[in-house]
Amino acid sequence: MNYFKRKYLSTILFILVFFFLTFAYIVLVFINYDANKTMMQELVKTNQLNIVKGYKRQIDEWLSVKKRIVSSASTFLEKLDPKKNYHDIRQILQSAITTGEFRSVYIGYANDSFITGINWIAPLNYFPTERPWYKVGKERQSIAITLPYIDSDLLKEVVSIVSPIYNHNNGELMAVLSSDLILDSIQKEILSINLPFNGFAFLVSKNGKILVSPDGFSEQKCNGCEPAISAILSNNEMVGTTTYGYNGKKYLVFYEPLENSDWIFATVLNEESIFGELNEQLFQNVIMAVSFSVFGILGLLLFLFLSRKIFEHKRLLDSFAHSSSHAMAIIDKHKNVLLINDPLRKLLAINESIELGDSITQLKEIAGNIELLQTLIEAVHEVMDCTFNAKIIKIPNNDTTECLLVQIMPIIEKGSKIEGCILTINDITNEYRLETHAKEHEQIMIQHSKMAAMGEMVGAITHQWRQPLAALLVLMGMLRIQVKDKIISEDRLIESFDKAVEIVKFMELTLQAFKSFYKTGQEKEYFDSATVVEEVVSIMKPIARIHNIDLSFIYDYKKDYPMFSYSNYVKQILVNLISNAKDAILEKNSTSAEGHIIITLDETSECYVIRVEDDGVGIQKGFEEKLFKEMQTTKGHKGTGHGLYLCKLLIENKLNGTIKIISYANPTVFELTFLKEING
């Protein structure tokens, strides 16, 4: 018993003290966590309320300015008769649109007459007195903001500021002035709000209708708007903070109503995200305390165990170094050799005995391979004196195609204090030969590919420039005649010069596009697909018009067609197809009969679809399978066989799209499909 006490009592006391300190540390961690959580909760609440008040004030000011503009317009309009002063009323409405940045401003009279400031003609069954905006103005009897309703023009929900106009003689309601709000600026403000903790903001009416919310929400956040609105509407406080649970998570809502409308501005934060970092830190501290305790005890026991193994490990290291098939050496911080094995002796051609502990530079006196030894000495100096990082060197022998791989690993203690390095040398001759042969084969393949593409590119550039050059010549010829006959205005002259510059720039872009066709450095860009098609149509129209061909582009001008891709490649494909369509019409119509080329633009959820239609001669029977292949043409000796082949290369290899024929004749229709956004 006394022997047991003398041997293990100090160890047991050390373990008990260690456990007590660990427990005390954990208690302090929990106390600190609770204090930090309370403080963070108050800081987040104060910060979010300030954000809500600030943006609420901005929206209020924005609405106040809009209301003042509408009120001012109604003051002028109450004195004007819609029959006698129609043009004056319309001018006031247009001025209000410009000043207030409204989408539209219009006025409806009690007799269902209607005047608008935009170019929109109301249908025959349109009665202003039955529209929601008129009813709101009539009911409120003062300037007010409507709830969202379906607009007769846009056929989607809009919000309007309305103002009733009364007859100053008898006080009866004469008309209601309405202005449609453009909520894009509020949308941009909400998108610009940088809320932490997975938060989001939205604008809602007091009856629970969402007016503005950020785009791009995940499905979970969009669904989270509805319970947030329910929590706001069910709260007794009109201003402040409330909470709600959704999908097993708790959320904090901060909101405040606007002064100039029946709207509420609100922000939502995920409570789990707010305290996530604190919870993670608590968990890490507890784990660290427990781990520190466990590893401390294990470390003590391990130290006792390892102290008996040090000598055995040293002997094992010596045995490994001398029996290893790799050449290796161990060098201390003074660059003295502590160990060098037999394979390294053979590589350095050292036949004499080595006195361990001497400097590595002293090996020059007994080494036969001085060149290899000098390389090793320089590498050791670089690692130990400069970089303190591992160094790997390949040393090929060009005469024998052999190759050695030298690795020098520094031994670094705390504080970047270097204690020495380990040097190893491996024979990688087989790997080096395989790598060399692979690179040579790759270079040969690249050169063959470039030579094969060179001929295609020269022919393609000639084919693509033919139409812009013809258009430029036609434009200059017409301009020369008009200038000579003095029948052209200065504006028309400038417009013609601009068109010529545009064609030349397009030719330059064509050359640049083909120069970079096989390069990977060309960058994608955002652009509007309809705008790109319009640019091509504007360039090709002069040459089409001279051949009595009508070139038209049909699309929904009210919509945007955003695309993230290569605009130049889209232009090249369209130029090719329009040029082919023009040639097909001229081949069919040897007389002066009129031809038609129609381009249409549609879209699906992921793609844009462009169709090029012409009433030309059509595609010959039996030529369908060869149409998109290289050096195949339907134009006989006039064709080069590059056009449709190049279209297929561009749309498939660069734009990740497709090209196909959906009608071979009467009319001939080519269909192009482009992804809206190319990834990778």
From TrEMBL:
A molecular function (GO) held by this record is: phosphorelay sensor kinase activity
Transmembrane segment boundaries? 12-33, 286-306
Read off the InterPro entries from this record. Answer: dCache_1, HATPase_C_sf, HATPase_dom, His_kinase_dom, HisK_dim/P_sf, PAS, Sensor-like_sf
Q: Transmembrane among the record's keywords?
A: yes
What does UniProt give as GO cellular component?
A: plasma membrane
Which residues belong to any copy of the Histidine kinase domain?
460-678
Where it sits in the cell: the answer is: Cell membrane
- Keywords for this protein: Cell membrane, Membrane, Transmembrane, Transmembrane helix
- Pfam families noted in UniProt: dCache_1, HATPase_c
Membrane topology per the entry is: Multi-pass membrane protein
Name of the protein described by the UniProt record: Methyl-accepting chemotaxis protein PctC
From which lineage does this chain's organism come? Bacteria, Pseudomonadati, Campylobacterota, Epsilonproteobacteria, Campylobacterales
